[in-house]
Write a structure and sequence with these properties.
2 domains, 6 helices, globular, iron, vitamin c, Jelly Rolls, EC 1.14.11.-, dioxygenase
Length: 227
Amino acid sequence: MMIQIPDVLTPDEVAHCRAVLDAAEWIDGNATSGFQAAAAKTNQQLPQDGAAAREVGAIIIQALQANPLFVSAALPRTILPPLFNRYGVGMGFADHVDNAIRRDPSTGQPLRTDLSITVFLSQPEDYDGGELVVEDAYGSHLVKLEAGAAILYPASSLHHVTLVTRGVRTASFFWIQSLVRDDARRALLLDMDVAIQRLSSAVGVADPSVLSLTGTYHNLLRMWAEV
């Protein structure tokens, strides 16, 4: 399940985040890579423990936690701190799959990476190339969104970033451990939640059909959630 989440950040928030990031000191993206990633990746990355990453990361997390579509689609249990990368001309990231387990840098606790998310921080007209390409059972999906929008997809997906041929692509990327591990179950719950909202608008929240569907949703969540 791939979900586009528009307007995670407002234009003012994007402008502020970019001002902070553009003034920060970037390092070689392979400073934190394993052997396989280092062979596939050429980009720049922001030091995770730096002031810029912490400030902008906090803005992104707060915005996502207030976004109903993100909460409904991800059912987040734990959100890892956002990372930031930058691709200039000639930079890209070949096909790879994200690590299944990552450690929370603040606690050292190992966390399962159920979902990957990219929040775009450059306008698409500001660079050529740099598309995120995600492979799933239905084929290849090319993603290049407006600044402030996000794409959420299973971390088990094969994906890559195409070479940038003009301009600079700046983005945030990180991972979520969901309350519901299975992607198909998360997709079903999201469909049910959307149906509940639409039905509630049409017939009212107290209608028996709404109450019945809501009860089914929560019963499934009780069975599938890992807390």
